């Protein structure tokens, strides 16, 4: 997982940030645009994705490579949220109060990343399994978005069947 940057902010105002500073300006431009009414939201930006976890008017943003599995990114954000002190106005009145906490937190993030990288297999079957998991995750996310936007599930299934038929005409039948 390529973790680049993390920031905690409140309604567009950055409070504390840690990580690769070359991403800082991109995230600072994003903060005012974040939809704080959604618990989780992703913003694609060139070759990176900004994953946002919103809670009590605060946003935790984690910037990763775009190919990182979103479930893994949100698991990381949840772990970050758990390590933060309870959200309250007094604790966030000064930026410096969180800085030591975030520095130790980022060390934990780096350890989690290293453990993940060391533990994941590099053989063809493991790589294929990760690709399938990521594809499934994207399909579930797209289906959820389609349903939330009001698309009828039956219409969605018909469209999927049409796409599969087109694919089979172009490529040939799938072998399972």
Description:
The chain has helices at 24-30, 70-83, 99-119, 124-148, 153-171, and strands at 3-10, 13-19, 40-45, 48-55, 58-65. It has 176 residues and is of the alpha+beta class. Mean pLDDT is 71; it is low at 87-98.
Strand order of the largest sheet: 2-1-5-4-3
Largest sheet: 5 strands, antiparallel
- Supply the number of structural domains: 2
| Helical percentage | 40-55%
Distance between the termini: 30 Å
Secondary-structure content class? alpha+beta
The succession of helices and strands, N to C, reads EEHEEEHHHH
What portion of residues belong to β-strands?
A: 15-25%
Which of globular, elongated, flat, extended, rod-shaped describes the shape? globular
Please supply descriptive tags for the structure shown above.
alpha+beta; coiled coil; V_SNARE_CC; 5 strands; 21% strand; 5-stranded antiparallel sheet; Beta-Lactamase; 5 helices; membrane; SNAP receptor activity; 176 residues
Task: Draw up the topology in text.
Layout: E1 3-10, E2 13-19, H1 24-30, E3 40-45, E4 48-55, E5 58-65, H2 70-83, H3 99-119, H4 124-148, H5 153-171
Antiparallel strand pairs: 1-2, 1-5, 3-4, 4-5
Brief summary of the model shown:
Residues 30-84 form the Longin domain. This protein is of the alpha+beta class and 176 residues long.
């Amino acid at each position: 997982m390529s973790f680049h940057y993390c920031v905690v902010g409140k309604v567009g105002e950055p409070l504390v940030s840690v990580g690769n500073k070359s991403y800082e300006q991109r995230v600072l431009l994003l903060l005012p645009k974040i939809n704080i009414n959604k618990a989780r939201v992703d913003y694609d930006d060139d070759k990176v994705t900004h994953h946002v976890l919103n809670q009590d008017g605060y946003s935790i943003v984690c910037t990763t490579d775009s190919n990182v599995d979103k479930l893994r990114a949100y698991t990381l954000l949840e772990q970050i949220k758990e390590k933060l002190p309870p959200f309250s106005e007094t604790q966030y009145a000064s930026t410096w109060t969180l800085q030591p906490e975030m520095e130790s937190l980022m060390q934990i993030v780096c350890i989690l990343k290293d453990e993940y990288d060391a533990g994941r297999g590099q053989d063809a079957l493991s790589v294929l399994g990760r690709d399938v998991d990521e594809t499934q995750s994207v399909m579930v996310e797209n289906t959820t978005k389609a349903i939330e936007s009001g698309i009828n599930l039956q219409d969605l299934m018909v469209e999927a069947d049409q796409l599969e038929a087109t694919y089979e005409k172009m490529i040939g039948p799938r072998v399972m």
